[in-house]
Amino acid sequence: MPGPTMLGVAGWPVGHSRSPRMFAPALAAAGLDWRYVHLPLAPERFVATARVLGASGYRGINVTLPHKEAAHDLADELSPAAAAIGAVNTLTYGDGAIHGDNTDAGGFLDALGADPAGWRCLVIGAGGSARAVVWALREAGGEVAVWNRTAARAAALAADLGVGQAAEPFAADLLVNCTSVGLDQAVEPGEAAAAVGLAGLEPPAVLFDLTYGAGPTPLCRWAEAGGARAVDGAEMLVRQGARSFERWTGRPADLDAMRAGFRA
Ligand code: NAP
Known about the structure:
By secondary structure, this protein is α/β, with parallel strands linked by helices. 41% of the residues lie in helices and 20% in strands. The chain has two domains: 6-101, 3-Layer(aba) Sandwich (Rossmann fold); 106-234, 3-Layer(aba) Sandwich (Rossmann fold). It has eleven helices and twelve strands. The strands form two sheets. A six-stranded mixed β-sheet has the order 2-1-3-5-6-4, sandwiched between helices. Strands 9-8-7-10-11-12 form a six-stranded parallel β-sheet, sandwiched between helices. The longest helix has 17 residues, at 233-249. It starts with 5 loop residues before the first strand and ends with a helix. The mean pLDDT is 96. Bound molecules: NADP nicotinamide-adenine-dinucleotide phosphate. Residues 104, 125-130, 148-150, 153, 178-181, 183, 195-196, 210-211, 233, 236-237, 240 line the site of NADP nicotinamide-adenine-dinucleotide phosphate (NAP). The site of NADP nicotinamide-adenine-dinucleotide phosphate has 24 residues, from helix 6 and helix 10.
């Protein structure tokens, strides 16, 4: 008798990932006897292992650091988001082909909970998450500029995705923090704002901080003190997972079950 259908999250390290805790209640809520596990894969083993998981009972895997670019390169077919962003966080096995998608982009827009068409958007950071957010906002009709502490990286990202590069941070309608600044909850809000060039600026209408913690992040506190609506990265993690869930199972994800599992 074949075992249960398998799902997992591949990374190195990956033991800290909350995805198994987030997927287990969602699979149960959908009445699916599937398993979602941690897949610790060292970089030198990732490609060979990821290629054969489909023949070993896996329907799909999430991919996290440092494998997102390698997952992009090994996929047989790519979604438009994955092709444009150059990174894959969701691999799906089926019909002899491996499909690669990037659900960070859609998960970000889902978590934003508003239509950014026509908004002046400033994305701070120029790493992997900034690429996904810039692409998502551009596709949704936002007027996007990028600023990064290392200007050359912002210039490269802006040129690649066809958006603007800000000479300095400005008071935008939407400000997105795609740096790791703010991971430390003990940092004062003003100090976190200064670290990403926001000292002295009016908070935006909406601040989206990709980091998250047990409580509001320092940047969320900075923005809320100025009257902004603030969203942190926890909801984005839930929403990118929900999109992967729907891709693999063909069923809607129970968001409340995923949120509860994530926070457990
Ligand atoms: P990354 O590729 O390593 O990029 C890091 C970015 O942060 C770079 O732009 C870097 O600037 C900047 N940075 C780092 N330390 C800084 C400092 N002290 N001051 C100013 N800028 C600094 O990382 P990533 O994968 O994009 O992830 C960024 C953050 O987003 C992480 O905290 C990650 O956990 C979070 N994230 C959350 C989600 C979610 O679903 N919520 C998804 C993806 C990522 P330089 O170029 O100048 O070094």
